[in-house]
Amino acid sequence: xxxxxxxxxxxxxxxxxxxxxxxxxxxxxxxxxxxDSNKQTLSFSTREGTNTKEIIDEINRRIxxxxxxINKEVKEKNSSENIPLAFVIASLIMLFFWGLQKMxxxxxxxxxxxxxxxxxxxGVVASLSSCMAVVGALVLSFSSIIAQKENFxxxxxxxxxxxxxxFFILGGILGVLxxxxxxxxxxxxxxSILLFIVMVVxxxxxxxxxxxxxxxxxxxxSQKIFNTKKVGYIFTPVLFxxxxxxxxxxxxxxxxxx
Length: 258
Fold this sequence. Notes:
This protein is an alpha+beta fold and 258 residues long. The chain has two domains: 2-71, Alpha-Beta Plaits; 113-257, no CATH class. It is built from eleven helices and four strands; from the N terminus they run E-H-E-E-H-E-H-H-H-H-H-H-H-H-H. Helix 8 packs antiparallel against helix 11.
């Protein structure tokens, strides 16, 4: 057996690894397929006489539309290349909220009772603010798995509808509990600080400055979903849609606490 090593562009999480590995399941003469999203590498063993170039060309043809590419050269990630852009974006966001504060919007937002109009606006903003580090990773994980299935569109529709229903029902339950249980300002401050710390750690992870395990589907579960043709069953997208309620971004969690 001959050991082959390649670089893979576009891998970001464990689901990416499972997706790349799944493309080799019907390729004869290839064994011990292993991928590493952190190092952006692919390795496998081939029998003597196997045309590796044809295999890689075929796999690249399959994964091209999904944003992946296998190269002979292994390129290591540059952890610092995104820092300037991240700094600029963070500065613009801080400037935006500073402007809101100066206009008095920030002070009036959480003072007194919120009108239904303001609640609706906050709901729209919260629904659009689901961060890439938390629920975004789960959504990408799920969508990349079912992207190759025949019932992809119906599964995604069920997923998003179940997410809306889950936020409506579970959010209503939180509202009822909130009317019965009054959180002190000290408790709200502590929770906000904890959320801030979590968001900072996740941001450092996305910049590869402080790598941690991303919130994605476990690799064993992803493999089972990839290998089954019954992923279109209603239960699976509904389950993941409900799960997003418990993995919102810091802003959405602040709304839940409020």
